TrEMBL record:
<keyword id="KW-0007">Acetylation</keyword>
<keyword id="KW-0812">Transmembrane</keyword>
<dbReference type="InterPro" id="IPR023302">
    <property type="entry name" value="Pept_S9A_N"/>
</dbReference>
<comment type="function">
    <text>This enzyme catalyzes the hydrolysis of the N-terminal peptide bond of an N-acetylated peptide to generate an N-acetylated amino acid and a peptide with a free N-terminus. It preferentially cleaves off Ac-Ala, Ac-Met and Ac-Ser. Also, involved in the degradation of oxidized and glycated proteins.</text>
</comment>
<feature type="disulfide bond">
    <location>
        <begin position="1255"/>
        <end position="1264"/>
    </location>
</feature>
<dbReference type="InterPro" id="IPR000742">
    <property type="entry name" value="EGF"/>
</dbReference>
<dbReference type="Pfam" id="PF00326">
    <property type="entry name" value="Peptidase_S9"/>
</dbReference>
<dbReference type="GO" id="GO:0004252">
    <property type="term" value="F:serine-type endopeptidase activity"/>
</dbReference>
<keyword id="KW-0378">Hydrolase</keyword>
<feature type="domain" description="EGF-like">
    <location>
        <begin position="1232"/>
        <end position="1265"/>
    </location>
</feature>
<dbReference type="GO" id="GO:0006508">
    <property type="term" value="P:proteolysis"/>
</dbReference>
<comment type="similarity">
    <text>Belongs to the peptidase S9A family.</text>
</comment>
<dbReference type="InterPro" id="IPR051167">
    <property type="entry name" value="Prolyl_oligopep/macrocyclase"/>
</dbReference>
<dbReference type="Pfam" id="PF21700">
    <property type="entry name" value="EGF_DL_JAG"/>
</dbReference>
<keyword id="KW-0472">Membrane</keyword>
<dbReference type="InterPro" id="IPR011042">
    <property type="entry name" value="6-blade_b-propeller_TolB-like"/>
</dbReference>
<dbReference type="Pfam" id="PF03022">
    <property type="entry name" value="MRJP"/>
</dbReference>
């Protein structure tokens, strides 16, 4: 057997070695990845690889384990799911006969489930650990190393061509194998996305820019107006109602109340003709399935019936206001929640009478010989006709009508239909009618569309009349009737909206409305009323709403509502439209959004988006994510309007579908070549993105031209073009792709299908590779089912696993409780966009503007700055932090203003006690001598609480300290730490003595408003955990001891005073649980939180409508929240929702009565604060340079608005410190003090009463003439709110102007 030489220590041996290839992180520390799975023991090494002994693996790869939680997560995920690489370390010669065992082992200082290997031939099993003291062997994630089972026996025959489908088993989403595959992929992908150094800055910026009010156009129904509004970060928009357009609006329907996580969406509303009833549909988890409900608009109450099995359905009222026509799938079997894959067939049209059961609904239209028909329907404006519009695919429909005006009691059975259109060769949509003469929008004999008049009494084609002729270039996108006599029409002119008003009787042009380059995405009109509303947006302009009075002789749009985006200056950016030549010479339009000062040197990152299918036009649209990319990535965003879309009508669509599908792919690749040749970007800096059909576009392009792109993001893509038509509604897409079962279309589909064209890139001397690739899909996507993405990523990883040049990641993320995109809550959108930008940033190694050299230096120092130091920062800004124009660089300016805006939580700490050692107030020398002989006396604070003149500390028992709960005075004149007095006495503390009647390990402390100290006692392996309550107002008497049913792992608690008495909410380490205790009932219970473990906990202030519990996630940086009422109601399981991500893993949080959280982090030398009334924005609070300890801080707030903080370090002296700061706030337990608050708004504060927003920020008093007592506000002029912190004699935003 060959001998191996360790790369590090030159040790020579024959076993306990791994063959590895070396990689390095940016800071130079080594990481390792096994690249030689094909090798067996004893074989010679491959070039560029080294042998490393397990001892050196441990030493060099894990010396920074605690400092890098994300890297540890990546390593663990790789180990858990990819264990076959350990064959070289096992020393067993039995080839490929290993099985995985799972054991729970201590992973550093935490328990985790770890895999180990055992030979099935009976050899001695070898753990993943090299020895009892070794750490897990760290092989960092390499995407092409993932192994996935292939079933080579699955082969299809397409017209004589054999096509293998080895991943057919991934088509069953409910199989254990498929679920395991998804879990493995997510376990690899999520750490990669989270390990972007600027992820938190990106998420904060996305959250900040998303937090602006968004409105829909008002719609008049009856005598009232309805509109949607999202205040900014609400998961779902809320439907409001108002009596007049400029009156006060009230909430009418709030879908956010239907689910805690916002995954129940209000998808559609339809009001009855009299406006007295609203029909509305709800969707869960993004599925296309809907339930239909009815609400009385006067009482706000719902009718009892719920209509189910509804998908792709119209909802149209009969004009007698008695019922609606809707479509459902009555024969749908099995699941109908969005996670199924079966095709939906046999849709039927029903009539539902209001206030009756669905089982009583009347079947009015069906097509039993056409199971794939989807039935559209409209009731004519006169109410006499039901227009039926069935379609089979995604273009072309038939037209029928039935007379319903003569049915006083509504339909009683199948309606007799008269057919108008007999061939599926064109599109038709009803616009309006004058008697029997109906106006339809159609592309029949008009690729750019026209309006035609069809007389229902004489509907033959030769009798049709053109009302508005086809434009030779512009595309007629839609038309609506307004004010009974006018048509409001929208054209697409060179991929931008153009609005016209035309006469209904003649079709003649009345006026054309002035618009900038942009997009009109919605219009709100009622044929009976003169008001008409439309919206306008562009790449740089959020939605603006205009109103037109259609009754006036001269009609001009009047601004109705406009929202300004905060902290974003659009004047620094520009949008240009260019036309480039495609492969066949066709001129293709493309929008480019960028900074005005862009230098075309090819160095800028670029994000190019495309779709190119289903006659869909990509007009300018406002996107916060794209703005962040352009602003903070210094990037270029591009939207390519390739063939297959509808930008130039049906001819443009036809040029990119069916056998012409390759044209769209060529257009997209030509767009990339144009951007590179013109210096906008380079191939290594170019990311392509697309969703659904755009996902197909992206995947096909990286197959055909992998060297052209640096990264690719394919969202919910159609990636298996040979089987797409077999799942849910995929059969409808044959109109764009062709039918794989048709021998004419099969060769073309096989040639472009992403799944079937993955191959090792050729050329480039073997150095070419696929771009970094991220696939995104969701478990409830019943439009493009997830199996497309699952099979494609499996094929990618299989094909490229052994390609030496493939170092770019090939990843997939499967979202839960989400669908194709519709109804997705705001929180999920922010998280998804954060993932996308993090993937781009990490994969392309982009330094964003909030993580440049200036900010990196400052971030290491910013936590050490005292409050007064903020005012002097402008005098010490390094040159790199200023722009060429002389203005402050964006990141530094944001940090500087952040400090000025954080005065309510930032504080100047003064030392109270300092000492290098802690001393107990021993009861006797004998006890002291015995304790010090038997134990290493090195206590450190774990938690703290304060009441009156005493500070209570819980001490870690890890070092066998003689007592765990102590108190010290807070009013000593000495600066030396006083002796620790055991609380309540020595006799009630029992560290190490296993006396279950005494306190074993105090881990969480809190004092309630009645002066009682609550102590969480973790217990031991033989003593269950307990909750002790001492009455500090009654000589520290013991009031209650509650024993839990389990030992160990409790950590932190908060107290909730309710009408039913006090409740305690307690976090529990290493368990997916929250513990709840009721003092009144003296009972406790456990709330399960699947897949979520918690370290620390906080509670929102006492004053407020609903209290929220905030939870710090274990092994993660996320902050979650959940309703306290939900925990009190004894729910068995709960799913706290994520609201943001800290910069590190929190271990202790404290909330004040203004809603600010103070947070300490594991192994970090700084603390942070968070204003929970604002979008998530972590702010520096206080810190120390070179502090080195696992849990260095504890917090406590007293009733006198003083914050107490303990600091502990194992090296730096003094090792023990107690600090205090006057912060102007109390504990969350007490009412908020009636002082001005910055949380009321950006312009007004709180004066006299908490909810009185009369004073400007920085002022209080009856006349708002007293400076707000921020910490340090005794200085400065208070002429401006931020000047409360200026030094004497200075003013201005930077406090650098002298007072006159």
């Amino acid at each position: 057997m060959d001998e191996f030489v360790c790369f590090y220590c030159d040790k020579i041996g024959q076993d306990s070695f791994l063959t590895v290839s070396r990689l390095s992180l940016a800071d130079g520390s080594p990481i390792w990845t096994n690249r030689l799975l094909r090798e067996t023991p004893g074989k010679a090494p491959v070039v560029n690889c080294d042998f490393v002994c397990l001892d050196c693996i441990e030493e060099h790869c894990f010396k920074r384990r605690k400092e890098d939680q994300i890297r540890r997560t990546e390593i663990y995920a790789y180990l858990q799911h990819n264990y076959t690489f350990l064959e070289r370390a096992i020393g067993c010669n039995c080839p490929k006969k290993y099985e995985q065992l799972v054991e729970e082992r201590l992973f550093g200082d935490k328990y985790q489930k770890l895999p180990k290997l055992a030979c099935t031939n009976g050899c001695i099993p070898v753990s993943v650990r090299a020895s009892s003291s070794a750490h897990v062997i760290p092989l960092l994630f390499s995407p092409h190393l993932l192994w996935t089972t292939r079933d080579e026996s699955v082969v299809d025959d397409f017209h004589g061509t054999k096509v293998a489908d080895p991943y057919r088993w991934l088509e069953d989403p409910d199989s254990p194998e498929c679920k395991e595959f998804v879990e493995k992929q997510n376990a690899i992908t999520q750490p990669y996305l989270e390990n972007f150094n600027a992820r938190q800055h990106i998420k904060s910026r996305l959250t900040q820019l998303t937090n602006f009010p968004r409105y829909s156009c008002p719609a008049r129904h009856g005598d009232r107006y309805y509109f949607y509004k999202n205040s900014g970060l609400q998961n779902q928009s809320v439907l409001y109602v108002q009596d007049d357009l400029f009156g006060e609006a009230s909430e009418f329907f709030n879908p956010n109340e239907l689910s805690e996580d916002g995954t129940v969406a209000l998808t559609r509303t339809k009001f009855s003709e009299d406006g007295k009833t609203m029909c509305y549909s709800l969707s869960k988890s993004g599925s296309d399935w809907n339930t239909v409900h009815f609400r009385d608009t006067e009482t706000g109450r719902d009718y009892p019936e719920v209509l189910e099995k509804v998908k792709f359905s119209p909802m149209v009222w009969s004009h007698d206001n008695k019922g609606i026509f809707y479509a459902m799938y009555p024969e749908q079997q099995g699941k109908a929640d969005g996670s199924e894959t079966e095709s939906t067939m046999y849709q039927k049209l029903y009539y539902h009478r209001l206030n009756t059961r669905q089982s009583e609904d009347v079947l009015v239209v069906e097509f039993p010989d056409e199971p794939r028909y989807r039935i559209g329907a409209r009731v004519s404006h006169c109410g006499n006709y039901l227009i039926v519009l069935p379609n089979k695919e995604c273009k072309d429909n038939l037209v029928f009508f039935a007379e319903i005006g003569s049915l006083p009691d509504g339909p009683q059975g199948l309606l007799p239909l008269t057919q108008i259109v007999h061939k599926l060769d064109s599109d038709y949509e009803y616009v309006t009618n004058l008697g029997s003469k109906c106006i339809f929008w159609t592309n029949k004999d008009a690729p750019n569309y026209r309006l035609v008049i069809i007389d229902l009494e004489n509907p033959s084609v030769d009798q049709w009349k053109t009302l508005v002729a086809e434009h030779p270039k512009d595309v007629l996108e839609w038309a609506v009737l307004s004010n009974k006599d006018k048509l409001f029409v929208c054209y697409i002119h060179d991929v931008t909206s153009l609005l016209q008003i035309r006469d209904l009787a003649t079709g003649n042009l009345i006026t054309q409305l002035p618009l900038e380059l942009g997009n009109v995405s919605s219009v709100s009109e009622n044929r009976k009323y003169p008001e008409l509303f439309f919206d306008f947006s562009s790449f740089l302009t959020p939605r603006v709403i205009y109103m037109c009075d259609m009754s006036k002789p001269i009609i001009e749009p009047v601004l109705y509502r406009k929202v300004e985006l905060k902290d974003f200056d659009a004047s620094s950016f520009m949008t240009e439209q260019v036309f480039f030549s495609s492969k066949d010479g066709t001129k293709v339009p493309m929008f480019i959004m960028r900074k005005k000062d862009l230098k075309k040197d090819g160095s800028r990152p670029c994000l190019m988006y495309g779709y190119g299918g289903f006659n869909t036009s990509l007009l300018p649209v406002f996107s916060v994510m794209r703005l962040v990319f352009v602003q903070h990535f210094d990037g270029v965003f591009v939207c390519a309007n390739i063939r297959g879309g509808g930008e130039y009508g049906e001819s443009w669509h036809n040029a990119g579908r069916l056998l012409n599908k390759q044209n769209g792919l060529d257009d997209f690749q030509a767009a990339a070549e144009y951007l590179i040749s013109e210096g906008y970007t380079s191939s290594g800096r170019l990311t392509i993105q697309g969703g659904s059909n755009g996902g197909l576009l992206v995947a096909a392009c990286i197959n055909q031209r992998p060297e052209l792109f640096g990264a690719a993001i394919a969202e919910v893509g159609v990636l298996d073009l040979l089987r797409f038509h077999k799942f849910t509604v995929g059969f409808a897409w044959v109109s764009d792709y062709g039918d794989p079962d048709d021998p004419e279309h099969f060769p073309n589909l096989l040639a472009i299908s992403p799944l079937h064209n993955v191959k090792v890139p050729s050329g480039g001397d073997g150095s070419r590779q696929y771009p970094a690739t991220l696939l995104l899909t969701a478990d409830h996507d019943d439009r493009v089912v997830p199996l497309h993405s699952l099979k494609f990523v499996a094929q990618l990883q299989h094909t490229l696993r052994d390609h030496p040049a493939q170092t770019n990641p090939l990843l997939i993320k499967v979202e839960t409780k989400a669908g194709h995109g519709g109804g997705k809550p705001t929180a999920k959108w922010i998280e998804e966009h954060t993932d996308v930008l993090s993937f781009i940033g990490r994969s392309l190694n982009i330094q964003i503007s909030s993580a440049n050299s200036c900010s990196q230096t400052l971030r290491n120092q910013v936590c050490n700055l005292s409050l007064s130091t903020w005012t002097l920062l402008s005098l010490a800004i390094p040159p790199v932090c200023w722009n060429e124009t002389g203005s402050m660089a964006p990141f530094f300016l944001s940090i500087f203003l952040l400090g000025l805006s954080s005065l309510a939580t930032a504080a100047t700490f003064t030392p109270v006690y300092e000492s290098n050692e802690l001393e107990f107030d021993w009861p006797s020398e004998e006890v002291k001598t015995k304790a010090l002989q038997e134990n290493t006396f090195n206590p450190w604070p774990v938690s703290s609480a304060v009441y009156g003149s005493r500070l209570f500390l819980s001490l870690s028992n890890n070092e066998k300290v003689p007592v765990t709960l102590v108190s010290i005075p807070t009013n000593s004149v000495s600066t030396t730490y006083p002796k620790l007095a055991p609380f309540p006495s020595w006799d009630l503390n029992s560290v190490g003595l296993r006396d279950c009647n005494k306190i074993q390990f105090a881990v969480g402390l809190e004092v309630d408003a009645n002066g009682r100290l609550w102590v969480v006692d973790e217990g031991t392996d033989s003593c269950n955990a307990k909750l002790w309550i001492f009455n500090l107002e009654k000589n520290d008497s013991l009031e209650l001891v509650h024993q839990f049913s389990f030992p160990y792992l409790l950590h932190d608690l908060v107290l909730d005073e309710t009408p039913d008495g006090y409740f305690a909410y307690i976090s529990r380490f290493y368990r997916e649980q929250i513990v709840v205790f009721s003092l009144k009932a003296n009972q406790s219970w456990i709330v399960e939180t699947p897949d979520m473990q918690w370290t620390t906990i906080a509670l929102s202030p006492k004053k407020g409508p609903t209290r929220q519990v905030y939870l710090g996630k274990q092994y993660d940086y996320e902050l979650h929240t959940i309703s306290a009422a939900l925990l009190r109601n004894r729910t068995e399981t709960a799913t706290p929702k994520s609201i943001g991500t800290w910069t590190a893993e929190p271990y202790r949080m404290l909330m004040d009565n203004r809603g600010t959280i103070y947070t300490a982090f594991e192994s970090k030398n700084y603390t942070s604060s968070l204003n929970t009334s604002q979008p998530f924005q972590e702010q520096p609070f206080h810190g120390f340079a070179d502090l080195d300890f696992t849990w260095p801080f504890t917090f406590a707030l007293d009733q006198n608005e003083t914050l107490w903080m303990t600091v502990h370090d194992k090296n730096i002296k003094p090792k023990y410190r107690l600090l205090k700061a006057s912060v102007g706030v109390k504990s969350y337990i007490f009412e908020a003090s009636p002082l001005c608050s910055e949380t009321c708004s950006q312009e007004h504060g709180v004066c006299l009463e908490v909810d009185d927003c009369r004073c400007k920020v920085g002022w209080k008093g009856e006349n708002c003439d007293v400076c707000h007592p921020y910490p340090g506000c005794v200085n400065g002029t208070c002429d401006k709110p931020w000047e409360c912190n200026c030094l004497p004699g200075f003013r201005g935003k930077l406090c650098n102007l002298k007072n006159e």
